[in-house]
Amino acid sequence: MRVLVVGGAGYIGSHMVKMLLGAGHEVVTLDNLSSGHRDAVLGGTFIEGDLADIDCLNKVFEQHQPEAVMHFASYIQVGESVRKPDIYYRNNVTNTLNLLEVMLKFEVKKFIFSSTAAVFGEPDYVPIDEAHPTRPLNPYGRSKWMIEQVLSDYDTAFDLRSVCLRYFNAAGADPEGQLGERHDPETHLIPLILQAASGRREHIQVFGRDYDTPDGTCIRDYIHIVDLCSAHLAALEYLNQDGSSDRFNLGNGSGFSVQQVIDAVQKVSGKQVSVINGPRREGDPARLVADATRAKKILSWQPNFTELETIVSHAWQWELKQLR
Fold first, then answer.
1. Which of 57, 144, 245, 258 sits 20 to 30 Å CA-CA off 207?
2. Side-chain half-sphere CA neighbours of 315 within 13 A
3. Residue in 11, 75, 89, 140 annotated catalytic
4. Among this protein's residues, is 88 annotated catalytic?
């Protein structure tokens, strides 16, 4: 297939482009490089452009005639979304509506949306399945939930079929060492701890050690980047087999605590990490873990990299590459 990947120069998108190419698909990447990296796009056609530019989108669809679209071009920082809700709604909602408008114009009816488990908000129970109430707590989560609702309406009105994939924390790096996380600023736990281990960061801070968990630190769901992309690929195949629009939660099956991640980094790297203990952050639940049962059953998806040390070791190899 010809697949358009928007946001394909970012962390998740670039791994997705590599996987699509490896699976024999023809890939067109559209990215404005606001947070992505041109050298992370390892093949196919690259176009620097913005979803806010309707003329650009029209040209992309006219020239390349994609048969399906994968969307990774969202802003993703929760704290920033609270401070700057305007840019989150403009990029994550308005710009996605632009994309959907052009898809309908060119009769492209298959859409894979990289959503977020932030649509659920404070969990009533863990692990979180698709039946859990959706009540996002911040503009980031609300912007994703808005698009999920839009997609439901577009399916009813225009027969535009979509799969929304919800997950908490993408983690790890390409096992072959070609790709990894390069956020600026970095806000994700695993790369922050790895940077402290490698010497690129003086210390890391743990926010709260008094949670109702075995070691007192928060438990989070981490999904290896390759497993995450394989779920998106499975969703594409599902739509190709005339699957109906749906939403799926993704996770590796069990969560890991902040302390467990620190221990794993120290074991894999052989380095001691300087840790500063701080107070709890407002709005941090004790546990966030997704239930991926439906994705495994309906998409025939199975995560392969579920061990924390494996996730960390792949990310550590990428971190070491950044020091060269």
1. 144
2. 32
3. 140
4. no
